[in-house]
Amino acid sequence: MITGYGKAIALSSRELIMRVFSLIPVVFVVFAASLALANDKNNPDTIQIDGHLHTGAEIFGIADESSLTFNIYPLSDSECVALRDSMRGPVMTDVVRVDTTSAGWTLVKYTLKDSAYRVFERAERCYADKKYVDALVLYHYVYQLEPSYSQCLTLIGNTHYALAQYDSAIRYFEEETSRNAIDYQAHWFLGDALWMVGDSARAIRELTVAHVLNRNHTGILESLKWYREAVHRNWREWDYIPTYSLSRKDNTITIRVCSPWIGYALVKAIWKYEPRYAERMDPQADTSHLFNSLEEKEALVSALPLIDAITPITSIIEAGDIAGFLYYEVMAPKAPDAVWLLPGDVMNSMVDYVEKYH
Prior knowledge:
By secondary structure, this protein is of the alpha/beta class. It has two domains: 2-88 and 254-310, no CATH class; 96-230, Tetratricopeptide repeat domain (Serine Threonine Protein Phosphatase 5, Tetratricopeptide repeat, Alpha Horseshoe), CATH 1.25.40.10. It contains 17 helices and eight strands. It has helices at 14-21, 56-64, 77-86, 114-128, 132-145, 151-162, 166-179, 184-196, 200-213, 218-230, 262-273, 277-281, 293-307, 313-319, 322-334, 336-339, 344-357; strands at 2-4, 27-30, 35-38, 69-74, 96-101, 104-109, 244-249, 252-257. The chain has a four-stranded mixed beta sheet, sandwiched between helices. The longest helix has 15 residues, at 114-128.
């Protein structure tokens, strides 16, 4: 049964579900280190709502008839702020590359042999001391010793940038992004260099790529906002951060939640605690995955009536951009490293999504 704030949940219609989920591939599951995306073998373009995917009203009924007790407690504004802050995902600090192995794609951190690393340390000291010409010589030597260390191209480009040699900087940044498309620093610095030579459109595009590659990096986002504002394309400030917490004691489930996310949090509680619910919904579900597609879809539908006023979700649905929404708003904040394993065309679609809705 449901107690507390749950009786005030706004419920969504089956018609709304059909509008949303006719636009989404059937499986959208993000692994901690990789992503799998597949369609229904029988019908790749739609999802059949045949009683399997539940409306908000049905979710409410399942919870109300459960042997468990779901206590829903609204949080104060200050509690919501604190909880939101605690839910923000990691900021990526390493630059890595994608390697192909027999098991598939994997992320590999750059390493240097001792001889190259000693030269690298000297180069870094020269750069810190603003001895940029000396630093350039040493970075080039590192790259000569370790040609696989393509991030050195970013460092060479950045040193040219410090010398105000913007064309040279652009050349090296572009070479690195062509060799390692997930080097967020190369895209970030390339955007800065392009801005300095007056190419504002490409600069903003590259900053957007860098932002998508490192979703929670505030420095990149602030730079992107500044560039956008300078060309009168102000950043549209909204986010999708379901703000709630779940806990269990015996047969009582406590849902602490901020008001727009009541329906979302109830779905999450049912998937996590209702006996056999997750198994019945998705017998092949893997609990090691970052999230389950059906679970996320049910949660989104239950949240729609209350989040429509604070997000452009209706426009996103009507334009058929749900996939971009899920990649950027759901996956990227939780697992930014999973973005690095996406195909290039998906990455580009995420950048297009950001430019359209933010």
